[in-house]
Amino acid sequence: SMQIRSGSRSSAPCPRAFVRFIKVIAGHGTGLLHFWMILASAIRQVRGLGDNKFEVVTSLRTFIFRAEREGERQEWMETLQTATRPPACGSQKRSGTLPHASSTNKRGLLELRGYKGRVLVSLAGSKVRLLELTAANIRDLDRRGFEINTPFKNFCFTAESEREKQEWIEAVKESIAETLYDYEVAEKIWFKEANRSCADCRAPQPEWASVNLGVVICKKCAGQHRSLGPSISKVRSLKLDSSVWSNELVELFLEVGNKNANSFWAANLPLEEDLYREASAEQRATFIRRKYRERKYTTHHGPLYLLLCVKALCAAVVSSDVLQTMALVFSGADVMCATGDPTYSTPYLLAQRAGQKLQMEFLHQNKLCAFPRLDQWSENACLPEASIFMDGFLYISSSSTKATLDRRGRDDMARRWCTLEGGFLSYYESERSPSAIGRVDATEVISLAVNHTETMTGAGAVFTVELYLQTERLLIFGAETQETQHDWIQALTKCFIPPKVEGLVRKESELIGRLHYKEGHDLYYWRMGWFMLEGSSLHFSSGEEEGEEEVLQLKQLQELSKHFSPPIQVLLMVACGRTVYIHGFNKMDFTVWHSAIKLAAGTDGNALGDQQLTKNGVPIIVDSCIAFVTQYGLCQEGVYQRPGNPGRVSHLLEEFTHDARNVKLREKEHQLQDVTDTLKSFLSQAEDALLTKELYPYWVSALDEKSERQRVKKYSAFIESLPKINRSTLEALLQHLYRIQQCSHLNRMPSEKLASVFSSCLFQTRGQTTQEISVVHDLISNYITLFSVSLKCSCGVFFSFLMCCLSFVPGSRDYNLDFCLLNNIKKCRCLHTILLYLK
């Protein structure tokens, strides 16, 4: 039988607002598993029956109840009849002990699975039909359905339309979140009148805040603030993130307030561009981007003010004027700048010394934020071209964390209809879907990675593109052809790359984006620049002048290292006497650039061009081996003829292949024979012969010339036709062998023997032929002529020879010459002087 277990009843007349429903529980001990709710306004009639029963008649059905006693039945009937009458008195004020009024209220008719017809569902705060949403979650189902999962039971609902379903889902999600709300922080922040409305659209009772910008914002604006990225706006909830809200942070918001903050951010806001509460998501996004990222509505100061920003910041942080500090930081003053004081080296330490807790809190919240100087800002840098439009099918990854720089396959990509319009990349379930299932603001893209090879997915082979956003999100899409991929890249890059650096976007670009950097002449200030990785070349530009572009050859880096410089990670690159530091906008962004640069700067094949190189374009393995032999083996008898240990040679080759830049050859750790065999093995195993297999018949045919002068002339022409890296490597090797044969009276290695050793390496032939040996002999003997070595360079060669003679001539006098004398001999660069000295 049905029995009334709970409800609202009172002998005194009561306002209707307090008698909203009757809760009916069927069965015994079933808790929330079986219950019904009858809205008081839906009751048409309440009448008594026999046997202590009474019935409640509604438009959908009639409920029959039975009480324990006749008196109890009468009491219930009177209470229900009172509840259905219009209220006899005005609304009473809510008691202070009642919970806060909820901003999430929704009522409507829904179909409830397991019940016939539709049921009226009322959502008030954290309860649906008295269903507690604590520890509950909601799941979107197919078509118009959704499911609420509670610890007791799952409830499946179907709405009348897709739009109504989404409204219900959002409302229930908010209600679930409300079960975790803590109003203490919100009430403190709202104590200041300016904080009771949104700083952007003036919506009442804003429940979110940007803790570094110092503004209190509503839920809708908070979503757009998140898209700015944590480097510009760090969004936190007043009700959920209670652990974030220290006493100092609350005091900071009471000190600043939305009114004072807007005196900076909206100082020059035109009335026609102001944001209103009913604005669309696109209008809201545009306004917030212009207000905070572009700082369009702030007061722009002259260049002198900007130059004095750092000095002014150091003076401001020791005072109580937080607003002045805020204006300086948001105008581009670096919160981590050097103060010039070795003990209190940052503005934060200055504020700490002065006991300015609010200044310390503000600087702490902005230590990772990036506000470029207003004089460096280019409005065109982030404004998309309104005319750009593209649409078509792409494959979109459902994962937002797994990058594909490792080029492995993916099985989480689905075919979606995509559009690029107004600077937004939107993707839909199909081309007929009315609403997008995802959207990316192209101006939020900080890096774009391109995979020029096919990536295998569950949908087949596609050419993928990765979009890294300021919010540390990753969107991966793929195209069926490289042409389609290139078209989308061209359109997307026009939306976030300034026109002045559009030249960086090329068909073979692998990674494009913006980074913070500093270099050579100015290592004190970070600047924003645009970077593009193409093969092993890193192109970059500050974007200040059109066509300005600089290039780092990553294979020729002398140093590549990662450093942690709190609070950021920094990548150091040194090449040809030039030093460049870079860091990203977030951890994910930095990681992808670091991985790509490290990969491009490393050894990635057996070809000469795939090796790590010196500043002269010679593989480091060749240069290191030559330097070691020159230092320790120039006058060793039988150098290059004595075999090394195969195991040690193989290990040394592996070390050079892994990271040649960090291999250091030392006399006590490495044997001369192992190093010489390593050099010969490398040349033999390279992808192509140093003299190239293609030119083999030409080299050999040159021997038909009886005149050495004519042969040398042909050799010179062949050398000029070699690839640049082959030419520079051959020059370095022949110079080395020329020095060896110059000391042949000591090392017993004349050019004939050297030619016999190296001919099979340079031509990559299995055996040695007389013709190959003759060609290599000619090359060694005529090194000076073939490479047009100047007298200055010749003196350097003979100086090495001189050192060898001075050190190893048996029975000679003591040649520990004064350093200055040797230095003067070298400086004179005069062959005649050296020959006279030898004589």
TrEMBL record:
Its main location: cytoplasm. Residues 82-102 are annotated as: Disordered. Residues 174-298 form the Arf-GAP domain. It is found in: Cytoplasm. SMART domains: ArfGap, PH, RhoGAP. SUPFAM superfamilies: ArfGap/RecO-like zinc finger (SSF57863), GTPase activation domain, GAP (SSF48350), PH domain-like (SSF50729). GO terms for molecular function: GTPase activator activity; phosphatidylinositol-3,4,5-trisphosphate binding; zinc ion binding. Pfam families: ArfGap, PH, RhoGAP. GO terms for biological process: signal transduction. InterPro entries: Arf-Rho-GAP_ANK-PH_domain, ARFGAP/RecO, ArfGAP_dom, ArfGAP_dom_sf, PH-like_dom_sf, PH_domain, Rho_GTPase_activation_prot, RhoGAP_ARAP. Residues 611-787 form the Rho-GAP domain. The chain crosses the membrane at residues 21-43. Residues 1-85, 131-177, 387-497 form the PH domain. Gene3D superfamilies: Arf GTPase activating protein, Pleckstrin-homology domain (PH domain)/Phosphotyrosine-binding domain (PTB), Rho GTPase activation protein. GO terms for cellular component: cytoplasm. Residues 92-102 have a biased composition (Polar residues). Keywords: Cytoplasm, GTPase activation, Membrane, Metal-binding, Phosphoprotein, Repeat, Transmembrane, Transmembrane helix, Zinc, Zinc-finger. This is ArfGAP with RhoGAP domain, ankyrin repeat and PH domain 2.
